[in-house]
């Protein structure tokens, strides 16, 4: 029996992605806490390891050592399915991100479509978590999560579609190849409005402040994951950070030239750009208050959506005129 | 026209405030910390000197192990939380022969000097877990034998540890002042304080 | 379900049973508290929700009842002062002043000049620390984590200074009948003189980071309307009624101590919303700084406590007395009945937070859950003060 080489490649890539997701979660938690500390004029984690570098690892170990609890009256299947369901699609998302021409897990022609489709699954996980845990706060958080994610997916798609129109492909590698090495050759110069819409939408899509309403701790205690303990919570937590990395990676591919950069192209440029975007997301979180729920939807339906549609129509029109 | 200005142009102008907010947090991100790294550095002594911690006894001028206290019980009776317990010393025991001798002497009309109980207390125990640090005992002490300590680093893992024997504390302080070896090694705190002072001396 | 066979019959405690469902179908009864991040302690609010809209709400008190009033009946006049430091941990010095002021009024005691100035200085500093705590915590309620850390930067400086005249950093009980317990020194005055311009220079940062922020403005502007007649009905005082347009301040309405000597304004806002109350408190920073500046310049030398100050076993004359001061949250007052013995016959504490909380149920009706958090925060509640 002959094992197809493509299968081996995917399995290896999946294992690598799992390690990469774990590493990224640790690194991002550390970065987030350090950034927050420095913004608030305190050192942040400092005790475990030099400058607290092993703190997230120890926190992860502590989470694993905790007891898994399920509230009375919770729906056991849905309750345990939810964290797994939030984690699995994220792993798939990483497969088709092109870190460099060689470092691509799975070269798919419809890579962009695949990412957008699987990213939508995360909502289902939040809904199941909130509904299954038999908790009123969780239910409110789940309801918020669903209407927020559904709403913000639309301008996100429309913004991405403008790039797809322009490059004429859904293959992420080709989108990068269509851009040059220098910043003025990137898509962000041509599509600044699409980038702004995309960036605002991913804040809503990944439930990051100031749009972190599903888990708004001063209103809903912890929202959809109120009842989760141990790694049940840990998986949601990791999935949130993994999602952040994915959306920022996609932004890098679509708007910032992917692995291409001045002087030497390569995966280091990709990582650097992704982490700059992540830094901006963290910076926003530690600066702004949270918006109210109706305002959140108003921003989407009254501002982002018309702007995205106008942007798309404008792109299509210009394509038609100049092509 | 007004509606457009209010609903379209004004919100876009207001977005500038978000940039201003980012500038403020960005500025502080680049600045030095204001917190004190506790076990490595401690706050300067001038801040702890004004802090009123638990109460402590003041030694008398003659003997640093004996307090000025005259066991008058003013502190114990006036304490609103009943956290001070003072035990008076008893008079020394007298043998029956001696007693008889004095009685005879008194019968002869001579003045007898009977031994009196020493004034300083036999035991002075204080429960910090009950104390509300109101200072009533300090204000009412007729011989000014009480004061607030400046110990802000007191910790305990058990409630019983907060019941202090202030006489023993006074003896420890006297020992430490006389330069005798203390009954415990210097703690983390003293070492940290020394290290911090050295570091600040170097910086200067 | 199997573990609690009678779960259907268990319908909650006394309050939930008496909070009957409204006429609307499909509403959700939700307990916000006693453990909830934005009730600042153990306040419990029962909400009837339609989606996220609040149909009805009912605050439930008593989770932090510590019997301060009853304790007053068994303690001496001197022994009750530490209790006053613990009624309101955010701003205890006005409570100190209300109690010792009541006793002084009852016994006709004159307080030395220097002690009066020390009282004014420490109380105004305490008002600033209390407002700083409120400011940070309120923005925290609205979802921004960083401003509370910046507020604590200034607050720590003030607490370091306040340590000299009070000896502690949180539950001050430094006022005495007939004066104050500790004197202030030149170092304190210098520190305060350095603090005032520093704090003034920080206030524009507060405005840039928070007050002008469009997200915050949308969260608090026109939210939680409390018109003047509503404030009057419930007996609201302090920044709540000043945020509704009435310049009512005990320091001006019924001057006590030496407040009539200082030149300061009473900031008001007539928007009646959360933003109004927010702006009143920020403006009070400036007014407190003005009072501090004048008091520091005028402070005379002299004793800090009267001659032959009352001993713990002191007995005041028989009688009844009422004394009110302006705390950080409003009218803080003590009603005292003395039967001529060592301890009071009755002590009634009038907490401003209790009256201010009463407005919440009416103001929060029909708003969103997130607005309820904003309204609750804008009232500046301290739960131990409400429950006493």
How would you describe this structure in keywords?
heterotrimer, A: 323 residues, mainly alpha, 69% helix, 0% strand, C: 388 residues, Cytochrome-c3 Hydrogenase, chain B, 3-stranded antiparallel β-sheet, 8 strands, globular
Architecture overview:
The complex is a heterotrimer of chains A (323), B (204) and C (388). Chain A is mainly α and 323 residues long. Chain A has one domain (71-322). Helices cover 69% and strands 0% of the residues of chain A. In chain A, α1 (5-39) crosses α2 and α1 (5-39) crosses α11. The longest helix of chain A has 35 residues, at 5-39. The radius of gyration of chain A is 20 Å and the shape is globular. Chain B is mostly helical. Chain B folds into 2 domains: 1-31; 32-203, 2-Layer Sandwich (Alpha-Beta Plaits), CATH 3.30.70. Helices cover 41% and strands 9% of the residues of chain B. Chain B has helices at 2-14, 16-30, 45-49, 74-78, 96-107, 136-140, 166-178, 188-203; strands at residues 55-57, 84-87, 123-127, 146-148, 163-165. In chain B, strands 2-3-5 form a 3-stranded antiparallel β-sheet. A two-stranded antiparallel sheet of chain B has the order 1-4. The longest helix of chain B is centred in the last third of the chain and has 16 residues, at 188-203. Chain B is elongated, with a radius of gyration of 30 Å. The model of chain B is unreliable at 182-188 (pLDDT under 50). Chain C is mainly alpha-helical and 388 residues long. Chain C folds into 2 domains: 14-60, no CATH class; 68-387, Cytochrome-c3 Hydrogenase, chain B (Orthogonal Bundle). Chain C is built from 15 helices and 8 strands. In chain C, the strands form 3 sheets. In chain C, strands 1-2-3 form a 3-stranded antiparallel β-sheet. In chain C, strands 6-7-8 form a 3-stranded antiparallel β-sheet. In chain C, a hairpin with a 4-residue loop joins β6 (319-326) and β7 (331-338). The longest helix of chain C has 29 residues, at 113-141. Chain C starts with 13 loop residues before the first helix and ends with a helix. The relative contact order of chain C is 0.18. The mean pLDDT of chain C is 86. Chains A and C meet through α6, α10 and α13 of A and α5, α6, α8 and α14 of C.
